[in-house]
Structures are given as C-alpha cells and as structure tokens.
Model the fold of this input.
Amino acid sequence: MVFRSYLILALLFCLALAFPPSGTAQENQKRPPARSPRQMTPAAAELERLRADVIEKMKESRASAVKLLALHEEERKKLSEEYERRKELYRQGLIARAELNQTERALGEAMVRVDEDKRWIAESDITITEATMRDALLALPRLGVGGYSESAGFIRFNGGALWSLADAPKIEKFFAQTFGHALPISAFGQTATHDRLRFDHRNAMDVALHPDSKEGRSLLSYLRQAGIPFIAFRGAMAGAATGAHIHIGNPSVKTIASPASPVECCKDE
Done:
C-alpha cells in the first residue's frame, strides 16, 4: 500500500511538470512580455508639454479672432452701405468728392482687416492640424522613394526629386496658369509659430487647399509627376475642411534644438 501511494504521488508529480497550470513561472517565461507604453525622456516630456501649451494658446487666440472677424465684418457691411449712400449723394451733387473718398478709404481698410482675420484663422487651423495630427503621422510606416499612401486623414508621397523652396516659383507658375489666380500659400519656410512648436519647416511650404478639391487634386497630380514630396492633410476630423491643406516638402515632424536657433541640426524624435 505504501509503495502504491508513493507510485501515485510520483505520477502526479510528473503530470504536474508536463502540464503546468496557468499562471506558473514556466508559462510566464514562454509568454512574450507585454508591451510597455512608450517611455519618454524628461526633455521629450517637457517638449510635449510645451507644444500642448502652445496649441492651447493658439486655440484660445483663434476663438478670439473669430469674434473679432464678426465685428470687422459688421463694420465692413455698415461702411459698404454708407459708401453706396454717399455715392448717390455725390451723384446728386450734395456732397464733395473728398467726403466720398474718405468713406471709400475707410471701406478699403475694413475689407483688408476682414481678409487678414480670415487668413490668420486659416493659418492657425493649418498649424493646429499639423501639430495635433503629428502623432498619427509618426505612427504611419515609412515610405520608400517614390512611395504613395492614402488614408482617411492623409495622402503621402515620398518623391525622389531634390526639392527646395527655390523650386516654389515653378509650382506657383503652374497653378496660376491652370487656375488663373495665385497659389494660396499659408506658410513659406520657417515661421515664428513653427519655432514655438519646435517644428523644422525650413524647407517646406503649406498651401491652403483641400486635397480632395479640384485645385487640390490638380496640384497633387503635378507634384507627383515632378517627384516633389508632399503630405496632404484632409483635416483634423474626417469630412471636415478645417485645417485641410497640402504640405509641400518633407514632413515637419523633426525637432529643432531651440526656437532661438532654428538653424541647428534637427533630429527625429
């Protein structure tokens, strides 16, 4: 009986070795380690905090600009009505030409203010879009030379041409000849905003065109034929035009060492 008991215990021990229960050290050794979240250096964490702060301030400034635009548009509307009224008075010989000219100048200045407000808001939307979509862009696989990729948020092309801002006039000439108006460039090279975000935009320019518009598609086709790299942003949200634009040049995902010294060498983060 004792021998039989020892024999049963030995068999059970062998079975335990052959089929260890879940959660044992042996199984944990075979199981691949869980992926830990990306570890950030203190410098990288501080840079992310700085960027988030800049983006938040830009959003606040944009909200103020929208309110200011409404006021300027109301002012323009009133001056336009006043100009039409004075034009009729001048035609009837009831006021002098100088009085009409004064209203005309005021109307022109009001129109400039409205245009400047709209341009500033559009440029802010573009910069905020690039900054907020940066992580999604970095997560995409790299493209080989000549590679093309299209998704809901981006259209990417890694052209092999030796692109520089000195080639920009060729693109502007093509666009003007095709559509009869100037290429809507929102950022040309490095700007103060790119400095604050620590983005390397020295050899790139942004064009305020939706990539799915007629003008946008034509421009992307031209860039691909010329081998010029680009990233087309469809906007921060699917189906929304806000922030949509075409970034001509390599991605601005590299980091400059300091906003005070943008000519220092760049590095991938």
Residues 1-37, 259-269 have pLDDT under 50 and may be disordered. The chain has two domains: 45-132, 143-248. Residues 45-132 form one domain. The helical segments are 2-18, 25-30, 42-91, 97-132, 134-138, 168-179, 192-197, 214-226.
